[in-house]
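Feature request, filed as a ticket because there's no other form

It would be nice if the structure record came with a short human-readable summary line next to the tokens. Right now we just get the raw output. Example of a typical job, pasted below so the devs can see what we mean:
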Amino acid sequence: MNKIKTILKNKISFGIKYIPYLVIAVLVGVTVTYAASKLVPPGPVADTMYSLQDIYDLATSGTPATEGSGTIETTPALSETGVTLTQVYEAVETALASVGGVDLSNMFNGSCTIGAACPGGSEFPGGTQAQGGIDDANYDTTGNLAQTPPAGRYETTWITCNLGNNYCGTGDAGANAKDEATGLVWSYPLTGLGGASWDTETNSATLTAGCVADGDCAYWNTDTYYSWDNSKSDNNGKTAYELCSSHAGWSLPHQKQLMQAYIDGSYGNLEPQGVGRLYWSATTSSYNANDAWEVYLSHGYTGSNGKYYSRVIRCVQE
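Raw output as currently delivered:
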């Protein structure tokens, strides 16, 4: 019995001796876990950076700061008298909306008129493709279309159709060019009675001969113009859709296909440089069944007009 009492006494003594160490270990573990969930710097924050106040002052008043010039303290606690990230964000957002006293949005919405705080005293003439740019036809100040496309414009890869690539895989000599982005193959403009053949002339000098400010170019007199319905004599009783479908594999392009071709850089790749033709699409106007949509492949204009009007026709093949 005495031996049992001795063993129990020793175990209790051992437990009491090491309880403080166990408590300390647990507290340390809890502290570490708690600290891991908080934004607690491992040490003093170095004064080698810009503070939120520096950024805020720069955005709101243009006040510059020297990196590391401020004093950043973390003891006894981070100050609550500075600016918040929300305030910094809103200040930067406001600053970006107005640069140099000019509201950038007005430079593109038509309200930036002469004498109204516009760069150069006039509406913004264009910009990068991401900003909208100017139209690809890049008219000069006299209204002459014969201009090279603006530098830096968005354009995809266009393949010229020829015998070597089996006319872009169509096997048809009427194929003009393929837009690699959409996979669509575009024909030359139709020509002749009933769109019997293709107008394969692409030489800009030939097509734009005689061009003056009012657009009196050679192609105006040599192109064949067709109505959307079958009313015009050159249609030879065919609708615009039938003019294309009478050629195996071809169809009249929809408005959005023509618009996408322009976006992808049809001017200078499909439509010869300096040429401004208005093309019929297969899309009828939703608000007037007697109208259909038309598109310029040179500068992207699209609108609807009576189906009896005369327009040029290109066909498309997927």
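Something like this underneath would help us a lot:
Residues 1-40 form one domain.
The first strand starts at residue 98 and ends at 99.
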